[in-house]
Amino acid sequence: MPGISRRHFAATAASLPLLASTRHHAMAQASGAAATQGLPRSYAGTTLRITWANTPSYLQIAKFCNVFTDATGIQLDFVQLLQADRYQKLILDVTSKTNAFDVYITAYQWKDEVAPYVADVSHLDQEVKGVPPMDWDDYPKAALDAYARYGDKYIAIPIIGDASMLVWNKKARAQAGLDPNGVPATWEEVVQSGARMIHDKQYGFNMPAGKSIQTACVWIALFHAFGGKYFDASGKPSINSDAALRAVRFMSDRLGKISPPGILTWDFPEMLNALAAGQAAQGWMWTGGFSTLFDPAKSAMAGDIGFSATPEAVLLGGWGLTVNAGSRNLDAAKLFVGWLTCREISKQTALLSGTPCRTSSFNDPAVVAKFPVLPAVLQGMSGKVATYAPIKESEQINIMIYDEVNAACAGTKPAEQAMADLQDKVTAFMKRRGYLKG
After folding, report:
1. CB contact at 8 A, 271 and 260
2. Facing residues of 42 across strands?
3. How far is the C-alpha of 251 from the C-alpha of 269, rounded, in Å?
4. Are 337 and 121 in contact (CB under 8 A)?
5. pLDDT digits (tens, 9 = 90+) for 174-189
């Protein structure tokens, strides 16, 4: 089973097969859709620049958008970037007023930072001719509030719905004497099941412990599962708590012990590869990884996948599209994001990416037949949901989290010291930024 290295994942995604027959079918459906037929050619000759991702599902969607160009005459320049680069490009572009981009793909933890610079998209269908109905009630409430809502308006349109998932190899569970369809209800059950599935070069979990966002994600989910809250009633950080200490110990002493060696440098590609290659019989996964895991050509567990939302708490992932309020092509940009995210077109992109955000796409029989994990994702998004720290600079908090968790997992700091240092870092940061006085 070929591996998926970080370099391969990031640098050669464009050379991966694009499932052309599926894309062509979706494009044909979109071409005949009422949403596409109603598009005006008022902006023909315009070029929109869009920050974008470089993973296979995003590349599929970019190709699919040729339908929009054919219908409107608007050219689309998708600039493929890694996540950290997307954030930096966005912030630099809007704060410097360079306005080199018209549309940004935006993580919800950036929302407070970008809000002053992006357009209100609450009523696109009333403002720009040709934009299909927004159908805001067709999104899971927690996702819509996190991705899009800012005060009494919407500043983003959800495009990629995501929630933290637990996945396991049914065959490996059966061989370990476990019910292959059994769903662990607690993180303790995850560890106990994983310990029983360790065999030869097969491990029981795919825990990341590198200095990467995925390490922070696992800690955040555990922190909330164990009852943690970022801030107390007065707004002061409460990270140095029993829940925080339990979460980091659970990673270092429990999940880390049943995961493969080398996890101190792991990020998402290594997590996905561990499952696909059969190195880990169970693990954490985001919705976007299932297109690989379900593919027999890429995954050793393709025919034996069990899945559920992560137990006790689900971390909300996902992305939205924002329109640069300073764009020189403002209405054309609004037309594009309104078309791409509408109910009719979202079903077609869901068939390509397996990562919808509209409830109607999560429940569509054709989409579910291709990606059977989606009802479980929707269920997770509708349950106990954890999010990133609710402050403007949450990305900085995530960095502090994964630095300290990495240190605890590496053994360079005791867990207690790592959480005390995290508390001090977050407190000092919030004082510098004016959230705390004194």
Report:
1. no
2. none
3. 19
4. yes
5. 999 999 999 999 999 9
Element (H, E) at 425: helix 415-432
H/E segment holding residue 34: helix 34-37
340: left (phi over 0), alpha (psi -120 to 50) or beta: alpha
Q: How far apart are CA 374 and CA 380, in angstroms?
A: 10
Q: What percent of the chain has pLDDT over 90?
A: 77
Helix, strand, coil fractions of the chain, as percent rounded to 5: 50, 15, 35
Tokens representing residue 15 in the block: 């050379």
Domains 6-162+317-381 and 165-315+389-432 share a fold: yes
Task: List, in order, residues 6 or more apart from 196 with CB less than 8 Å away.
Answer: 176, 177, 178, 204
Q: What is the C-alpha separation between 85 and 283, in angstroms, rounded?
A: 27
Q: Is the dihedral of CA 412, 243, 398, 425 positive or negative?
A: negative
With residue 256 as reference, give the H or E element that holds it.
Answer: none
Tell me which residue of 351, 331, 323, 364 sits closest to 125, measured CA to CA: 331
Looking at the DSSP bridge assignments, the partners of residue 315 are: 386
Domain 165-315+389-432: CATH superfamily, name plus number: Periplasmic binding protein-like II (3.40.190.10)
* Of 190, 214, 317, the residue nearest 266 (C-alpha): 214
The per-residue pLDDT for 370 is: 87
* 51 phi, psi to nearest 5 deg: -70, 140
pLDDT 10s digits, 400-409:
999 999 999 9
Residue 89 has pLDDT above 90, yes or no: yes
d(CA 198, CA 435): 46
Rg (CA), the chain: 22
Answer whether 398's CB lies under 8 Å from 213's CB: yes
Provide the token pair at 83.
Answer: 């996540």
What's the CA gap between 339 and 326, in Å, rounded?
A: 20
Q: For domain 6-162+317-381, is the CATH number 3.30.43.10?
A: no
Backbone angles phi, psi at 428, to 5 degrees: -65, -40
Q: What are the beta bridge partners of residue 283?
A: 167
Q: For residue 14, what are the contacts with CB-CB under 8 A and spacing of at least 6?
A: 54, 59, 80
The model's confidence at residue 84, banded by pLDDT at 50, 70 and 90, is: confident
This prediction has a pTM of 0.81
For the chain, give every domain's residue range. 6-162+317-381, 165-315+389-432
